[in-house]
Design goal:
By secondary structure, this protein is α/β, with parallel strands linked by helices. The chain has one domain: Rossmann fold (3-Layer(aba) Sandwich), CATH 3.40.50. Helices cover 42% and strands 15% of the residues. The chain is built from twelve helices and eleven strands. The strands form three sheets. The protein has a seven-stranded parallel sheet with strand order 3-2-1-4-5-7-10, sandwiched between helices.
Length: 324
């Protein structure tokens, strides 16, 4: 847990009722900060309250409504976690639906709201996969939208808008998120029981991973230190293919290796289940270095690789009787 010396910090979190949002609020509250989370449903508001945050209702595409929340909360720091709801390989691309419109609209509204309030610092979360096919990518490696997909193009544009704004801000490019909070990961437990295969992509294509707790720790540290103008990679530093990730998850549960949908069946799988964005991401092989955040903030992942993170995930589920 991140230690806090300043107990007066007031924060507003967008995407607060997501899996990452709730874990981040939990850690911020543990630091005795005042945290307001923007909820998108009554259940979301209840979840925010359960981890110690104060729920607020606002349309994330309305600058006026966001301004009201920021002013009421007397926000000094804003954490924009809206992009992270879709940042996983565990939903077969389903979570990206509409993000070509979501990212521009929510970014525009938030920037306008922050510019017209007393917010001192904005944290915008983005994606490590935007480096495309790259080896040992650093923060200076050029970005590329996989397959020129409109959603991923919008993600790059959102980053640029934050970086080029007059607002003191930083950007965190995060690895694919997972952990015991993940509802999508838990669905794979059911798939294993039913013997369903999954589209794994090529085993040689590497991806970058990040446990929810480690992502939240980075967000807390950035909120505290406020490194204006920084762009930082937040990944565990041990890239592995999606196939290895899911297969090891099955082994950790004590199950046999699940079947893989072969590449030549991809068109049919796209029609039935898998969305184009999932295929586009699984066609990448990206390795990303996290030296900058380690050096600038002293951040290091609690779960240094996916095996440790998956073991912790399964242990928590079993201790809570969430799986057999």
């Amino acid at each position: 847990m991140v230690e806090s010396k300043d107990t007066t910090l007031s924060l507003v979190v967008t995407g607060a009722d997501t899996e990452l949002g709730l874990e981040t609020i939990r850690q911020l509250v543990a630091c005795r900060y005042q945290v307001t989370g923007i909820a998108q449903s009554k259940d979301g508001a209840t979840a925010i309250t359960s981890v110690g945050g104060t729920p607020a209702d606002a349309n994330l595409t309305s600058a006026a409504e966001l301004k009201d929340v920021l002013r009421t909360a007397k926000a000094e720091v804003v954490l924009n976690l809206t992009p992270q709801l879709a940042n996983t390989l565990l939903h077969d691309g389903q979570g990206w639906k509409g993000y070509d419109k979501v990212l521009p609209a929510t970014t525009t509204a938030l920037l306008e709201a922050v510019e017209d309030t007393n917010v001192k610092f904005l944290v915008h979360t983005s994606y490590a996969f935007l480096y495309g096919n790259a080896t040992d990518a650093t923060e200076s490696t050029p970005l590329t939208a996989p397959s020129n997909d409109a959603i991923f193009t919008a993600a790059i544009d959102a980053e640029k808008r934050v970086i080029n704004s007059k607002i003191p801000a930083c950007v965190l490019r995060m690895g694919y998120l997972y952990g015991p909070q993940s509802k999508d990961l838990k669905l794979y437990v059911k798939s294993f029981k039913l013997g369903r295969p999954y589209f794994a992509g090529r085993p040689s294509n590497l991806a970058n991973w990040l446990h929810f707790e480690d992502a939240a720790i980075a967000l807390v540290q950035v909120a505290q230190k406020q490194p204006t103008g920084a762009v930082l990679n937040v990944v565990d530093g041990n890239p592995v293919s999606f196939a290895d990730f899911i297969d090891n998850f099955a082994f950790t549960l004590g199950r046999k290796r699940p079947g893989h949908i072969p590449m030549w069946l991809t068109p049919l799988a796209l029609i039935l289940v898998i969305k184009p964005q999932q295929v586009e991401l699984l066609e990448l092989s990206t390795t990303v270095k996290n030296d900058a955040i380690r050096q600038q903030l002293g951040w290091s992942p609690r779960y240094a690789n996916y095996r440790e993170g998956l073991q912790q995930t399964v242990q928590i589920w079993r201790s809570n009787n969430e799986i057999e």
